[in-house]
Amino acid sequence: MASIINQEIPEFSADAYVNGEFKTITSEDVKGNWAIFLFYPADFTFVCPTELEDMAAHYDELQGLGVEVYSVSTDTHFTHKAWHDSSEAIGKVQYPMIGDPTGKITRGFNVMIEEAGLAERGTFLVDPDGLIQVAEIHAGGIGRSAKDMLRKVKAAQYVRENDGEVCPAAWEQGGDTLKPSLDLVGKI
């Protein structure tokens, strides 16, 4: 499989349910800001609502960092509204819930399970240029952590704003970074 890191997000236009309304969202709307795409298999399932609720719990902090979250499944925006209205966990979601019934977006991010017509648990961090900086895919039974994604957002933003510096493993905001150079070779 070819890497999609630093690849531009696919072009799309899709309907979403967000804050009590239906809204069309395009790939052009995403550019200019940081974004997280949170793909999940299906509405009205089991692990999925725990992940979307977890992301909702960190949404204000992500917004403060200039990040928009887009959850995406192959359900329709109508199904997203029904799920939002009937689930206490999903009722907490304020970010756009994109419907992708044709699978165009899901295929564009290479997370379509073709034989099921569903998305893998894929998480993508996209920079303001529309380029993918983080890509993770989890097996269906393994839930993701919004807190860990928040850490990765901060690291990606730091690296973008501090040319020549990199963030080591488990880096937390305010922690030491590295400046790769000949002097560091073999010393870490």
How would you classify the helix and strand content by structural class?
A: alpha+beta
Query: What summary fits the major beta sheet?
Result: 7 strands, mixed
- Work out the radius of gyration: 17 Å
DSSP, total strands: 9
Order of helices and strands: EEHEHHEHEHEEEEH
The shape, in one word, is globular
Strand content: 15-25%
Low-confidence stretches: none
Summarize this entry quickly.
Helix content is 28%, strand content 24%.
Features:
alpha+beta; about 30% helix; seven-stranded mixed sheet; about 190 residues
List the helices and strands and how they pair.
Layout: E1 13-18, E2 21-26, H1 27-30, E3 34-39, H2 47-57, H3 59-64, E4 67-73, H4 77-86, E5 97-99, H5 104-108, E6 112-113, E7 118-119, E8 121-126, E9 132-138, H6 146-161
Parallel strand pairs: 3-4, 4-5
Antiparallel strand pairs: 1-2, 1-5, 3-8, 6-7, 8-9
Architecture overview:
- This protein is α+β, with helices and mostly antiparallel strands.
- It contains 6 helices and 9 strands.
- The chain has helices at residues 27-30, 47-57, 59-64, 77-86, 104-108, 146-161; strands at residues 13-18, 21-26, 34-39, 67-73, 97-99, 112-113, 118-119, 121-126, 132-138.
- The strands form 2 sheets. It has a 7-stranded mixed β-sheet. It has a two-stranded antiparallel ribbon with strand order 6-7.
- The model has no long low-confidence stretch (mean pLDDT 95).
